[in-house]
Amino acid sequence: MREISVRSPLQMVVLGAVLLYAFLLLFAPMAAIVVGAFSQGVEALIKALSVPDVAIAFRLTFSLTIASVAINTVAGIGIAWVLVRHKFPGKRLMDALVDAPFVFSPVIVGYALILLFGRNGWFSSPGFQLAFSYPAMLIACVFVSLPFVTRELQPMLLALTGEQEEAAYTLGSSRWKTFRRIVLPQIWRGLLYGIILTAARSFGEFGAVVVAGGGIERVTESAPVYVFRALNDRNQVGAYGVSLLLGILSISILVAMSLIRRRGAQH
Fold it and tell me: How far apart (Å, rounded) are the C-alpha atoms in residues 232 and 102?
């Protein structure tokens, strides 16, 4: 699409309004976080980020993110493949349910896990309680980040003609080998984009994780949950410092997404 230079006063007003909106929505909060993080100096920030609770929170966050990405990558490929390549009763309902995490509040997801697996939950039993534990947090992260890989792969699988796959089957290639050598090279950009979106969603999840995990210090406290506790404890530097690290990592994810999208458009 050809770019148009701003010339008329109306175009300048619209452009200024858009830039102001972007500044207030994106840059102003990040600037406030940076100012808050360094409000008491660099030494205070380093000291606040050096406490064991921060390391444990980030370790838990990375663990949840990696596990969620691994599970949803496999599940997303399988769901996308079934929805595109197979016909079965209830297909439309299954396709609609894939988008359920987009419409359900994360807090409701966490509360549902407590109702199902809490002390008096539907599937609870003596000596077994899944709620307020790492598995409950992982289930919450997997649920909220489920659609991304599937929705990125569906249009790419629909665009494949299938002639190369049929030729490979005719030559005696197995289904796994055909997928690995013919299908995967054609959908890997969409798969990578879906993985990045899954990681970003899991990395910053708060509502479902804090409800399902309970926010127990050094046990089920992820980095976003730590920020919430630090604010309640009047630990402003710690809250802003962890928020700054989360923001830097989120921006890095956005840059990676932008690069993948640009290379995909060029391709």
Answer: 29
DSSP-derived 3-state class of residue 211? helix
Residues 6+ apart with CB under 8 A from 171: none
CATH of the domain at 259: 1.10.3720.10
Question: 200-256: per-residue pLDDT in tens?
Answer: 999 989 999 999 999 999 999 999 999 999 999 999 999 999 999 998 988 888 787
Residue 254: inside a domain: yes
DSSP string for 87-126: --TTHHHHHHHTTHHHHS-HHHHHHHHHHHHSTTSTT-BT
pTM here?
Answer: 0.86
Domain count, the chain: 1
Q: Which residue, 234, 217, 222, is CA-closest to 36? A: 234
Q: Which residue has the tokens 């830097």?
A: 248
Domain of 154 in residue numbering reads as 51-266
Which residue type, as a one-letter code, is found at position 201? R
Reported as a pLDDT band with limits 50, 70 and 90, residue 155 is: very high
Tell whether the model's pLDDT for residue 1 goes beyond 60. no
In the prediction, which pLDDT does 51 show?
A: 94
With contact defined as beta carbons under 8 Å apart, do 237 and 39 qualify? yes
Query: Which contacts qualify for 213-216: CB closer than 8 Å, 24 or more apart?
Result: 213/110, 213/132, 213/133, 213/134, 213/136, 213/137, 213/140, 214/131, 214/132, 216/132
Does 44 map to a domain? no
| Domain presence at residue 222 | yes
Kindly state whether residue 79 falls inside one of the protein's structural domains.
Answer: yes
